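Message: I would love a firmer grasp of how sequence relates to backbone shape in proteins. Thank you; the sequence and its tokens follow:
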Amino acid sequence: MIRWLLWLIAGALLGGIVHLITVLMLPRTATQDAYARFAAFAPVNAIAPVAAPTPQNAVIPFMDPAFSVAAGSYDLTNGPLKLAVPVSTAYTSVSFYTRRGVAYYAINDRAAGRRVIELDLMTFAQRSNLPDDEEITAADRLIVESPTETGLILVRALAPEPGLMPVARNALGKANCQIQ
């Protein structure tokens, strides 16, 4: 009886280890992750609008139809990026993700406190190469350090009423992303 119990515990332990390894490795083997989906329509280092979700077709699962979304992939090998996103009437947010989908920074219009969310995106090495300028303070220049050289930028604007969706799309259409 004890022998069967030991075999049962060992089998459960081995099954748990195999399950954990499979769950952790599965996202790395996926071919249609968010980065690949956005790369199909958004050029590198640029922001492009994402089509409104329909029940049959959505670029990202579980998209909220009350939000207008724009996205882009970035590559920081040629230098840092300067991102400028005009604020919409209701709510605007900018989120940054690594190539593997790990969110590492997000800001909204209320935290930015301005009519345009402006920031510089760069790697740690690029940040360390910046000259120390005493004239420019942290309040003047928002710098986001990316843990990887490639990743995704997601910009969302809320349309509290369906009639305000063109206003939200117009605000996202003016988003600008360029290499410095």
User: Anything to note?
Assistant: The mean pLDDT is 86.
